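To the wet lab folks,

You asked to see what we're planning to order before we commit. Fair enough. Below is the target structure as tokens, and below that is the sequence we designed to fit it. If anything looks off to you, flag it before the synthesis order goes out.
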């Protein structure tokens, strides 16, 4: 089942909380909604009556449990799951697509690699990027030839292993 939203607008008083949002998701996608505070994420999710920030306030074990349940649900049912989160790490771990909302409008939409490769733009919107991405950006700034589209620990391990095998890094 495809989910499609066309020209969604929500006005509170004189303020547009959501301004002409249009997007669609394929069946089985896990979509992370991200954006700075006040961007329109929660309003959009409330209109669509879906799960909002399922891991907020949880310890790492609880977070992993909830993300595992969401992943299992999607795999077992094939249904689309939409998650609002301020945690770019959580979104990187579970999502297949990312919808970035900024100033009540769609700023970016694409696969996790497509969106996370634009880390400088995400930061300029006031979003945080995964810790591992910050580390790799720092390595690059210090002259180590690493990729900066790394956003999971598994990708970081693979990149570091590759650099070690090439003799660029030694430990």
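Sequence we intend to order:
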């Amino acid at each position: 089942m495809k989910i499609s939203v066309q020209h969604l607008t929500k006005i509170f008083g004189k303020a547009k909380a959501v301004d002409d949002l249009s997007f669609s998701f394929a069946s089985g996608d896990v979509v992370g909604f991200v954006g700075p505070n006040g961007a329109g994420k929660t309003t959009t999710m409330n209109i669509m009556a879906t799960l909002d920030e399922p891991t907020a306030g949880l310890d790492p074990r609880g977070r992993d449990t909830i993300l595992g349940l969401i992943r299992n649900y999607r795999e077992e049912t094939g249904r689309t799951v939409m998650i609002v989160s301020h945690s770019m790490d959580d979104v990187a771990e579970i999502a297949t697509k990312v919808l970035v909302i900024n100033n009540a409008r769609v700023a970016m939409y694409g696969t996790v690699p497509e969106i996370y490769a634009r880390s400088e733009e995400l930061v300029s919107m006031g979003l945080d990027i995964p810790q591992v991405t910050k580390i790799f950006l720092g390595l690059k700034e210090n002259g180590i030839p690493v990729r900066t589209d790394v956003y999971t620990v598994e990708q970081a391990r693979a990149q570091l292993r590759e650099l070690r095998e090439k003799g660029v890094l030694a430990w």
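Structural context that might help your review: The longest helix spans residues 60-77. The chain has a mean pLDDT of 85.

Thanks,
Computational group
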